[in-house]
Amino acid sequence: MRSTINAYRNRNYDNVKIMVGNFQDIEKNLEEKFDYITLIGVFEYSEGYIGTKEPYVEILRRTSCHLKPGGKIIIAIENRLGLKYWAGCTEDHTGTYFEGLEGYPKTEGVKTFSKKELLDIIHQAGEFSTTFYYPYPDYKFPMTIYSDEYLPKKGELSHAFANYDRERVYLFDEPRVYDSLIESGLFPEFSNSFLVIVQAGGQIMEKLIYSKYSNERSRRFSLRTDILEQDGIRRVRKTPVGKDGEEHVASLVKWREELEKAFKDSPFVCNKCILEEKSVILEYVSGETLEERLDSLLKRGEKEEAEKLLTGYLTEIDKIYKGRVFETTEEFTKVFGETVFFQKMECADVTDIDMVCQNLVLTNPPVVIDYEWTFDFPIPAKFVLYRVIHYYIHTNPMREVLDEDVLYRKMGIIPSMRRQFEKMEVCFQKYITEGHIPMREMYADITPGAMWRQEKYEQLQRENRELKEEIKRKNHLIQEMKNTKIWKLYRKYRKMVERK
């Protein structure tokens, strides 16, 4: 099936050769050397095909013989100890709960591995340099790819969508547990999947240490954000996923220039960027984000201090986006829908609506690191404030100790205005996707089912009660049948047969 799909996708190319068959049969006739050999969802089946005492070591030895100097083997595989399996997802290959965690006591022919186990296999196979990446949520539908040089921060792992093809239970809150693991330095051991680059010789000049795909959007807004490192210096690269997205990515240079003017009298500066071919290169700004600072305050119980810091940020934003009275334009309606305000709203010529807390790094001066969603038509300034409050509080249950109603009132956002902003946000999200349906929104329709542990427990109890009732009903019917004349005749007939 995979080869058929591959052939169909590449039907217009004459430089693609597809050979179908078991590796040990095809490998005998391979004479070429390759820059890349991929084992995507394949490595774990080596035991069923290679047929040696050490099949996983052997598959690496054999494939490495077909690499060019500096060539790479790319392995994508589930982590046997991935957090999703502890949290209630079934093992991907067997469809049973905890099979991999228990060391595959009932399974032969397929196995996945922990990070240590995988490293041991690679070291036994030969002299290789090995780089581990950590796709999230997993390698099948990765949205973000981390590395040992760039691990996730608390609050970043908020998706619990995995095992689209099988039922699951929720045994605990995965994002909260991930935060605990991140804080303890244990994320690599519990990543749901691994993407491993195994290289035979060669030198890595510039290393990719992080990649995030913003591809759950329409084609013209889809892009990939990479963090690259060379000689200890990092830089950020934003690249359009396809030709349709080139204009959107290139516009970042323009927005940076415009926002620098808007921020002239504010405490903030924009992250620098330049256009490099079809990509935009931005400075890598290290430091604590406003989101991280607020979370730290809340964790220490300093709610008032957190509220004061957030209010101060909102006040500074409110000062930036002023200077003219908001009026609805055709461009505004296209992005944010039909909106009616019954009070005068202030706005500016250019507005970055995405000044959320995670986009501000608290350096001196503070740097706005992402300004992708900037527009040069009138937008109510208070809509920017609404988004800052909404996306900070509603993306982590811990933050709900802050009273959002109080924050809205402080910033002059009355309930009727807030309802209009909610509608604007819905329209904006539709504008970004333009009919594209993100995978996360299809989860409920695709998956056979998902439920919390209490729901599953109650379901099992209910099924147990129903089974007992069914047994009781059948026993009652049997007892009634035994009292009938037909049953007595049947018993008499059986005795006659047994005597004969």
What does this structure look like?
With 500 residues, the protein is of the alpha+beta class. Helices cover 40% and strands 18% of the residues. It is built from 18 helices and 19 strands. The protein has helices at residues 2-9, 23-26, 46-49, 55-64, 83-87, 115-125, 174-183, 187-190, 246-262, 290-299, 303-320, 330-336, 381-393, 404-410, 415-433, 439-446, 453-482, 485-499, and strands at residues 34-40, 67-78, 129-136, 144-147, 168-170, 193-199, 207-214, 223-230, 233-240, 269-270, 273-276, 279-283, 324-325, 346-347, 351-352, 360-361, 367-368, 374-375, 450-452. It has a ten-stranded mixed β-sheet with strand order 1-2-6-3-4-7-8-9-12-11, covered by helices on one side. Strands 10-17-16 form a three-stranded mixed β-sheet. A two-stranded parallel ribbon has the order 5-19. The longest helix is centred in the C-terminal third of the chain and has 30 residues, at 453-482. The chain is globular and about 110 Å long. The chain starts with a helix and ends with a helix.
Describe the SSE topology.
Layout: H1 2-9, H2 23-26, E1 34-40, H3 46-49, H4 55-64, E2 67-78, H5 83-87, H6 115-125, E3 129-136, E4 144-147, E5 168-170, H7 174-183, H8 187-190, E6 193-199, E7 207-214, E8 223-230, E9 233-240, H9 246-262, E10 269-270, E11 273-276, E12 279-283, H10 290-299, H11 303-320, E13 324-325, H12 330-336, E14 346-347, E15 351-352, E16 360-361, E17 367-368, E18 374-375, H13 381-393, H14 404-410, H15 415-433, H16 439-446, E19 450-452, H17 453-482, H18 485-499
Parallel strand pairs: 1-2, 5-19, 10-17
Antiparallel strand pairs: 2-6, 3-4, 3-6, 4-7, 7-8, 8-9, 9-12, 11-12, 13-14, 15-18, 16-17
